TrEMBL record:
Biological role stated in the UniProt entry: Required for accurate and efficient protein synthesis under certain stress conditions. May act as a fidelity factor of the translation reaction, by catalyzing a one-codon backward translocation of tRNAs on improperly translocated ribosomes. Back-translocation proceeds from a post-translocation (POST) complex to a pre-translocation (PRE) complex, thus giving elongation factor G a second chance to translocate the tRNAs correctly. Binds to ribosomes in a GTP-dependent manner.
NCBIfam families: lepA, small_GTP
Listed Pfam families: EFG_C (PF00679), GTP_EFTU (PF00009), GTP_EFTU_D2 (PF03144), LepA_C (PF06421)
Location within or outside the cell: Cell membrane
Entry annotated with the keyword Metal-binding: no
Broad class of the protein's primary localization: membrane
Name this protein carries in UniProt: Elongation factor 4
Membrane-related topology note: Peripheral membrane protein
Coiled coil: none
Keyword Zinc: no
Entry's EC annotation: 3.6.5.n1
Gene for this chain: lepA
Top-rank taxon: Bacteria
Amino acid sequence: DYQKHVRNFSIVAHIDHGKSTIADRILELTDTVSERQMKNQLLDDMPLERQRGITIKLNSVQVKYHAQDGEDYIFHLIDTPGHVDFSYEVSRSLAACEGALLVVDATQGVQAQTLANTYLALDDDLEILPVINKIDLPSADPDMCKDEIEEMIGLDATDAVEVSGKTGQGIPELLERIVKDVPAPSGDLTAPLKALIFDSKYDDYRGVVLAVRIEEGIVKPGDRIKIMNTGKEFEVTEVGVSSPHPVKKDMLVAGDVGYLTANIKSVRETRVGDTITSAQKPTAEPLPGYRQIPPMVYSGMYPVDNQKYDDLKEALQKLQLNDAALEFEPETSQALGFGFRCGFLGLLHMDVVQERLEQEFDMDLIMTAPSVDYHAIMNDGSTKLIDNPADLPDAGEYREVQEPYVKAEIMVPNDYVGPVMELCQRKRGEFITMDYLDKYRVNVKYNMPLAEIIFDFFDELKSSTKGYASLDYEITGYRATDLVKIDMLLNKEPIDALSFIAHRSEAQERARQMTSMLKKLIPRQNFEVDIQGAIGAKIISRATIKPYRKDVTWKIHTGDPDRRAKLLEKQKRGKKRMKAVGKVEVPQDAFMAVLKMN
Ligand code: GDP
Ligand code: MG
């Protein structure tokens, strides 16, 4: 009878369509948090989430709801991020649920991640409840949204709930619809324990805290549990739910979403996606788990202070518990010493990892320019994986270099198709098709090199469409293209951490840009610094930094005042992050210069 009163659902949507705000209203209406404790986007509790105003991590919370049928229900709701880099968080959240609220901004309509997240929910056979948000805005067009949900997603939207996360309008109806439309969980309470680990984090006091969905059976403190994929056994020390602060419980039963601690100390003992069972009475089969998704971009990460290598390693291991998509392995750079090559799902993910290491683990880091991974087909026919541009062998040693390609889908209002196509063409895109989605918008498809998409493509796309375009992409394979490695030399010394790979047609221009960027970013020293760009032994660009005079001013050339402020802010922090490369002091920014070129 307990299960009949449980509803597990995720809130999914394109970024900024109002998931976290709707979660706020649900917490408020169910008296989960008092008025005094209430603040905007309450579930975005990580400092970085609050600074950036975006959700980075999934966040689950239990609320109690007294429904119109007179019964009390328990909701486990999971708020999820909307940015494409964090869709891994979304898919893990969905696996813990029977339903999903698909939120669509009434002024924006269906966007790329609306579609992507719907497909994820459909993969998990979830009941999808369309919710049209921001109906308080004058430009809201709920009927257009319903049209789009029906035409583009193929869901019946006649009964879509219309709400305003801002004013709370429609939220009471939404709660009733959750009771009626989201199926109750159905796992067998008497079966052996079977629970999915859908998230985890490291806590200094309690060790590893696992977020779990109990599929079958019961778990309580004192139970011996086994992690099925590693075979490791533990004794449960605490179970509970987050509401949104941890609340201890006597037990968690089939259908529940909660947390569990068991004196687990290390990352190697468990992984997100693993199944927990009873040590004495194990279940036969583990749950399917998750597909580990490969990183899209790689970057080198080095402690500013070489003594901090072990601290960085420990920090990365702890962070990885809370960020299952982060990958890292040791690497050595001639210029930077001992560090790690890290794999990320995108540039935002990379940025978030760096900031979390600095904020939560007090690390000072130097990150090298991000790069996609290339395949070098060597003369003997073998394939060498190149996730660090400096590792690309000399031209004579390989037959060809291949780079990852994606199929990019861009949803854009009819009026902006021209600029979008022009942009894709400029980024080495290859046109596939263009489909009219409805009377408002088209879906433009291109094959494109991942390297062109990863960097500033999204920003350029936004600015050439007044923010109206949305983008989704997936890797389709590797293609041989005419790529060359460009080395940067400081006073004739090649600096491995500054090497980058570019298409031959752009190599000259990019070397020149990189050289002048470095000239701007590297402060004057008390000797002359000679900067050179080279392909193999051939020097293709050069500049000189004159020796130090009294007034050291760092020039920043950028028009947009917002960006300028951000850059200044970053530089202030970056300034203390200088690394002596040979005799030259090089700031963090210089290693990222590749990102600032077009
Ligand atoms: P998320 O990225 O989907 O979690 O979106 P957020 O909940 O963070 O909301 C994004 C922005 O939209 C914030 O500035 C909210 O204040 C705003 N917002 C959310 N819901 C509403 C709404 O119903 N009406 C209006 N006017 N603004 C909203
Ligand atoms: Mg959010």
